[in-house]
Amino acid sequence: MRILIVEDDPDLGWALVQRLRREGYAVDWERDGEAADDVLQYQDYEVILLDIGLPNMDGFEILRALRKRGSRTPVLMLTARSEIEDRVGALDVGADDYLSKPFDLREFDARCRALLRRSQGLASNVTQVGSLTFDRAGKVAQIGDTQLRLPNREFRLLEIFLGNIGRRLSKEQIAGQLFDFDDEAGPNAIELYVGRLRRKLERALTIRTIRGMGYFAEPANSCDR
Amino acid sequence: MGLLFLGAMIGLYIAAGAYATLAADRSYDRLLFGSALSIMDTLSITQGRVEVDLPYASLDMLSAAPDDKVFYRVTGPAGETVTGYPDLPAPPERLVARARSSPEQPNFFDARYRGEPVRFVILARQIAQPGATGWVWTQVGQTKLARNALARRLVLSSLLPIAIVTLLALALVWLGIGRALRPLQAIGSEITAREPSDLRPIMASVPGEIAPVIDAMNGFMRRLEANIDGLRTFIADAAHQVRTPLAALLAQVEVAVDSRAEPDELRESLKAVQRNAEKLSRLANQLLSDATIRHRSDLHRFEDFDLLEVIRHAIRDAVPLSEDSDVRFSSSLKEAPFHGDALIIGEVVKNLIHNAFCHGSLGEAEVHISLERSENGYILQVSDRGPGIADAEKNRVFERFARGSSNCAGTGLGLAIVRQAVESHQGAVSLIDRPGGGLTVEILLPIAAS
Question: Cα(B61)–Cα(B302) distance, rounded to whole angstroms?
Fold first, then answer.
């Protein structure tokens, strides 16, 4: 899941980037309103965290432009204002949620997760596919009673597949959601991660490779040999 | 008002009483005169003897007052009593003389007779007959009961209608004022019923005389509302300014406390915490300083002090203890007596020093402060070697929380405070570009002609 943070305060921005990257998310960080607007025009994100007070173009303008382009990416607005008019204004312009500073990072995490679920059309943090139980909040994946040992990247890769069961995903699409601008992942990185994940998931989830087209995940058929 | 009215009533009563007495006297005196005259007219001289034929009708005239007693006496030229009460009190000498000089004219006097106050009239007639020449005197007297009664009646009858009309007038005035002032009561209860924050103008219609008061009140409420709005905006802005560094602080702490933190990340987080804590502390100080100055500016706590002392003190307080900072203070004056608010001037200098540091590069700021005399006061200059301020921005930076184009760690309050403080001393502040780069803040402080 790739997240864009638009926040001009260097210390707050960095703390949020750290927090999310440690969770395994791919995170891009823009400090300038106009730069953020530019990036949003060519890069898709699963969630956008948007501050209101920004140099050159404020959060409301960026959001308006985003919605005008038809983007339905969930947006969480962060702001120092807490007047009710500002909340209503933000939600009406097209934000999906609103968090006023200062906030507890645990609440921040939970609201991000909620928006990420929304971007996948999911209702709860726990997804069940066959014998695979995937818990976003607890950061646990288990098959039956056995807990899978998944490093951050693989966890997020699984999350991407679980959000697209039965749909073809190209390497570029996966890379776009798994890596951010600061990652120096080579072209084979996706193959590597998919390979590792495939082996661990065999019993519950089958990840097929469609040569030249990408990957395809579906629940493992017990009758399948 | 009541006392005045009472005094007027008493005066009126006295005046009316005097008039009534006069009128009563006139009436009864006339009767007395009439009867004395009628007695005198019956005067005849028979064989050298004075004789009068007492006309009982004349005394009847006086019987109109049934409770009063009548006394009379006719005196012949030799002083002998012709008829009447011989022991009637004698008239005063001057009256006798007057009666003689204008005979047939009545003269009145008061005296006590038989224990009662009596009003007497004397009438003199000169006779010149063989055997009888000289003056004949007729004296008639009457007690004053009826006369006094008449006087009292007159007073009452004149005062009573006046009193009634006055009371009516008072009642009408009272009613009229009550009616006119009822809107005031209504306004009073309207205002009392209002919320403390409700400062809308009073819309009720009032009589013309009260209008100036209502206008003044509305004007006052408008000013109060503007004041409160300014305060509200200030508080909102200040709260806003506090939130972001606070959020950064909290977020950095949580990230640092995270068990996944690497040692070097930890160090960075702690530095960020320190930065933001300092920022918040500076902001708190600025806000306090601003509030202090606003409050004190209104109080005008002026006293005599030495500007040099205050500036030196402020420098000591403001300059951080890093050896990299370079703050120089120069002045050709040995002393700088000034009448103003020492605390405020100190705050101004501190704010300017903070600003100068902020614009300078990272704690290595070169700040130069100078104090010199001008024609009518002092010139205080605080200069830095920072990036300066563009001409277009020079006015804007005086606004509260105005973001300068430089990414200054300052709070945006400094110059607003400075201007307010300087203006409360009738001074002026201006920004001057420094040759060779940097900015000079120049403050003119006039010495009040005291």
Answer: 92
